[in-house]
Backbone:
């Protein structure tokens, strides 16, 4: 039954209420995503970075491990497939032999003979993080031949450059630290209200978390500044109104 005072939205209005594909963040979609296949067309390279960090943070997250291998398989990424497989072998140790055998078989066409044989040799006993293996820059768990050396240079008399708040917020989102990302973006919007991408990402967080309280408080602060805000604020306000009517 249609409620009084709530006109049906047109397809164009419905499309405006949806976050654009560029704004989709893996943390909003993969944290509760239980399927082993990931929509790489929708998430692009962000899925790779998010899953790599998820594996580095929680190596025992088998779903993230297999999702990561499947992402690189779907993209025919030879280097990424090997790095993800190596991390899977390290995380499972001598457990999960059927899983490792199945994933290795699927990845075989993309692996060099050297890399395939190295993993096949460790199929039963697993791989230690310190085992000498063919190197790759895509492994986040290996501490053997995949490591790199880097010199730290101290420069006296220079203050550290201020980080871009959008990049900093996106990093927190990838680590599922949504509240911290929201705090950074809210302050950044107040400091630089003319920067539309800050508004867009903050609104995406409000929309994904259904956070009407924070949205209302932030809108009041922006109104006090007296500067026009992007149309996304009005669109999300209408969406929240429709939900609470």
Residues:
């Amino acid at each position: 039954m249609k409620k009084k005072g709530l006109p049906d939205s047109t397809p164009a209005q419905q499309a405006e209420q949806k976050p654009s594909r560029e704004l989709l963040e893996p943390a909003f979609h993969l944290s509760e995503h239980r399927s082993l296949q990931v929509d790489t067309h929708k998430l692009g390279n962000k899925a790779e970075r998010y899953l790599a960090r998820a594996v580095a943070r929680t190596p025992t997250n088998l779903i993230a491990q297999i999702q990561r291998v499947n992402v690189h398989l779907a993209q025919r990424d030879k280097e990424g497939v090997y790095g993800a497989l190596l991390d899977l072998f390290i995380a499972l140790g001598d457990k999960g032999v059927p899983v490792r055998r199945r994933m290795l078989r699927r990845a075989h066409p993309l692996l060099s003979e050297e890399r395939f044989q190295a993993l096949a040799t460790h199929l039963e006993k697993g791989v230690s993080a310190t085992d000498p293996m063919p190197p790759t820059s895509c492994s986040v768990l290996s501490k053997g031949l995949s490591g790199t050396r880097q010199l730290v240079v101290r420069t006296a008399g220079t203050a550290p450059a201020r980080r871009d708040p959008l990049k900093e917020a996106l990093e927190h989102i990838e680590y599922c630290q949504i509240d911290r990302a929201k705090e950074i973006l809210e302050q950044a919007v107040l400091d630089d209200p003319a920067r539309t991408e800050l508004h867009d990402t903050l609104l995406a967080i409000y929309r994904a978390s259904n956070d009407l309280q924070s949205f209302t408080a932030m809108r009041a602060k922006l109104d006090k500044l007296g500067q026009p805000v992007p149309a996304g604020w009005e669109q999300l306000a209408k969406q929240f109104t429709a939900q609470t009517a």
Q: What stands out?
A: The first helix runs from residue 11 to 17. The chain has two domains: 21-121, 165-244. Residues 111 and 117 are 9 Å apart (CA to CA). The radius of gyration is 23 Å.
